[in-house]
Recover the amino acids of this structure.
């Protein structure tokens, strides 16, 4: 080609190209304006590639709109689109807010915080941005405090490469439900195999499906809810409104008797998408009748959907974009007056934010569950519940495991139980919504342990009494191996008393008050013999003195409690020394040590006439029993640790013997104190 001719043709070609691009952008903008976000996103994506890089303004606009349409349909490409819009200096700072939101949705919380900060420099009071940043900063702490609910994928309702969400129980017995799905009905008719897709999402259109429990309690019999609508290919005579395209059905609820269904319905009319409406259908002879529109607003352009009825069926909660709201979709309430729904009210700014609040679910206790993008959350839609308080609401994020960085929504409960289902697209690269089950396990509190003597021998015939401040009074025997295991009640304070013939009683206290999760206590009982001296292992004195060390306090307090639990005994409190030093000095030292212990006991409420201090010095060395023999194999059983034996040992073994002889003991003198 002649070079001069080529140069002359460039402006002409570019003009044609520019015209084509401008037309494409206008068409994409129109698709976006009528809510056909999937088709709009594809048009923006293809157009963006054709725009010369030097046309920064147009590139910024198209990239931003691509991000907007992809964000709405949860397309992961939205982040890249917003990034491009920022790169080409999109003039509205809203791009930073949207970019932050999709980064948060992807779980990139630190990156999201940076974008929120940029946006907040221009809009410091913007609630959505404040809430988003706060959530990103707190999410790691939230993850550390999950609730007790257990969540699992509800495989019975989910099909591969389809979205399934928003289940609703038909009646309180929770043996049947209806959910939304875009699965395709199997057909042998080739003419009916064409998959119709939504211009909004680009996915197959949605319909309602029912499921029932079989005799084994398993969900099956999944079937399309027939008869709810009739598609019309051509306008009937006198029909001024021609339905075109494919109807979409979703999010439903039921009257208390289960005979009337309220569901979300959308179908283009005269080629125009007028948004969703709420329809009702009545069941007769097991079949649903054709749906009828529920008129809530006089203005037909107002979108309404996501119905939820209260337990008595006289209050309807729903979602709408009606004028006068707080931004995005808001949750409303209407009251039944005869056959008319009246007194329509927006639930107010505590529930509704400048972003979307969707999928309300009201329970019998008036607790409202809903999904929100505006309240502080993990990302995307989060599940919240609101408790009515006078004329206000207390609002709580449901936390993990319900919420994730992705969309979590559409919760329903099986009657008054804490079991049910919710929806989420967590872990789904292509954004499929799936139904998850949840259950709140019963909290279980257990106390278990051993009952043994002071030598560590298990007591197989011991008795344990458990008395609670809720009226519990349980008496149990130990197993043959001396162990026990008992169930406890929640929010209860207990006293436990272990007894065995020939041994002193021993008492312990424990409490389940305030526990938020299952817990198993380990509580061992070491019972003191009535007939044998009992060594106190945790009584310590300063070297060569009779002053008690602070480390002795726990052991001393245990003895105090033992004497209080056994008020009819008197004891001899004895102290012993090793063989080092002369006999006379050791005896004086041991007596003073015994007296120090007695003084402590008297100070803490034990009558002095129940206590007899004795100092044995070195005159009563230890006799090796089976327990000591097992612990120190060089010590023969029944061996007396006297000077003659000790001197035959090495220096290190001599010190072991001396430490064993240095001890504080008590033995029971009488068991009839104050009985007569």
């Amino acid at each position: 080609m002649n070079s001069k001719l080529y140069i002359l043709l460039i402006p002409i070609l570019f003009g044609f190209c520019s015209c084509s691009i401008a037309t494409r952008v206008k068409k994409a903008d129109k698709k976006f304006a009528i809510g056909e976000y999937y088709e709009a996103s594809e048009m923006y994506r293809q157009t963006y590639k054709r725009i010369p890089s030097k046309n920064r303004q147009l590139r910024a606009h198209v990239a931003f709109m691509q991000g907007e349409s992809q964000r709405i349909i949860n397309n992961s490409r939205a982040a890249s689109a917003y990034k491009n819009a920022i790169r080409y200096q999109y003039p509205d700072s809203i791009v930073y807010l949207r970019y932050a939101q999709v980064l948060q949705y992807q779980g990139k919380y630190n990156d999201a915080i940076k974008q929120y900060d940029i946006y907040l420099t221009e809009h410091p009071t913007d609630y959505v941005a404040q809430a988003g940043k706060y959530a990103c900063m707190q999410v790691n702490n939230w993850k550390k405090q999950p609730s007790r609910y257990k969540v699992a994928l509800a495989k019975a309702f989910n099909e591969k490469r389809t979205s399934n969400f928003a289940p609703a129980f038909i009646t309180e017995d929770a043996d049947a439900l209806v959910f939304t799905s875009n699965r395709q009905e199997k057909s042998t008719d080739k003419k009916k195999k064409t998959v119709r897709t939504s211009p909004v999402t680009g996915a197959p259109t949605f319909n309602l499906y029912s499921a029932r429990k079989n005799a084994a309690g398993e969900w099956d019999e999944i079937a399309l809810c027939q008869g709810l609508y009739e598609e019309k290919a051509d306008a009937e005579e006198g029909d001024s409104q021609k339905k075109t395209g494919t109807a979409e059905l979703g999010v439903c609820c039921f009257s208390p008797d289960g005979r009337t269904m309220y569901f979300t319905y959308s179908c283009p009319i005269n080629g125009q998408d007028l948004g969703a409406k709420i329809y009702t259908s009545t069941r007769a002879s097991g079949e649903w009748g054709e749906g009828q529109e529920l008129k809530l607003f006089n203005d037909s352009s107002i979108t309404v959907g996501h119905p939820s009825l209260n337990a008595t069926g006289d209050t309807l909660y729903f979602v709408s974009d009606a004028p006068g709201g707080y931004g995005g979709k808001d949750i409303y309430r209407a009251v039944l007056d005869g056959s008319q729904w009246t007194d329509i009210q927006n639930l107010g700014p505590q529930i509704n934010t400048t972003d979307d609040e969707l999928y309300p679910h009201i329970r019998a206790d008036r607790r409202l569950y809903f999904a929100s993008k505006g309240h502080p959350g993990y990302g995307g839609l989060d599940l919240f519940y609101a408790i009515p308080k006078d004329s206000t609401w207390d609002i709580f994020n449901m936390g993990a495991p319900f919420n994730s960085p992705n969309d979590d929504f559409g919760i329903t409960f099986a009657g008054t139980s804490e079991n049910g289902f919710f929806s989420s697209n967590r872990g789904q690269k292509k954004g499929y919504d799936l139904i998850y089950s949840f259950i709140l396990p019963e909290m279980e509190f257990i106390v278990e342990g051993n009952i043994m003597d002071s030598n560590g021998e298990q007591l197989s015939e011991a008795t344990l009494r458990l008395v609670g401040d809720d009226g519990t009074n349980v008496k149990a025997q130990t197993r043959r191996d001396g162990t026990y295991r008992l169930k406890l009640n929640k929010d209860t304070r207990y006293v436990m008393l272990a007894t065995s013939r020939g041994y002193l009683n021993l008492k312990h206290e424990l409490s389940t008050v305030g526990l938020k999760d299952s817990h198993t206590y380990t509580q061992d009982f070491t019972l003191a013999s009535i007939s044998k001296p009992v060594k106190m292992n945790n009584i310590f004195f300063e070297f060569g003195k009779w002053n008690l060390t602070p480390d002795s306090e726990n052991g001393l307090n245990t003895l105090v409690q033992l004497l209080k639990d056994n008020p009819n005994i008197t004891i001899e409190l004895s102290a012993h020394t090793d063989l080092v030093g002369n006999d006379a000095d050791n005896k004086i030292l041991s007596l003073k040590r015994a007296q120090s212990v007695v003084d402590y006991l008297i100070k803490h409420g034990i009558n002095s006439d129940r206590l007899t201090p004795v100092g044995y010095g070195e005159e009563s060395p230890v006799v090796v029993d089976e327990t000591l023999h097992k612990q120190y194999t060089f010590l023969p059983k029944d061996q007396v640790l006297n000077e003659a034996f000790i001197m035959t040992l090495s220096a290190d073994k001599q010190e072991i013997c001396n430490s064993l002889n240095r001890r504080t003991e008590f033995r029971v003198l009488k068991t009839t104190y104050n009985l007569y």
